[in-house]
Amino acid sequence: MLEIVKNFPEQVEEALKINIDFKLNGVKKVAIAAMGGSAISADILKHFSQLPFFVIRDYDIPSFLGEDTLFIAISYSGNTEEILSCFKKAKEKCRTLAITSGGKLAEMAENKILIPSGMQPRAAIAYLLFPLAKFLMERGILKDIDFEEALYLIKSNRNQIQQTAEKIAGEIEGVPIIYGYNVMASIARRWRQQLNENAKMPAFDFSLPECNHNELEAWEREAKNFTCIFLREKDEDERIKKRFDFMKKIYGEKAKVIEVFSTGKNKFARAIYLSYLGDLVSIHKAIIDGIDAEPVNLIARLKEEMVQHSRSSS
Question: Residues 17, 23, 213, 224: which is the catalytic one?
Answer without folding.
Answer: 213
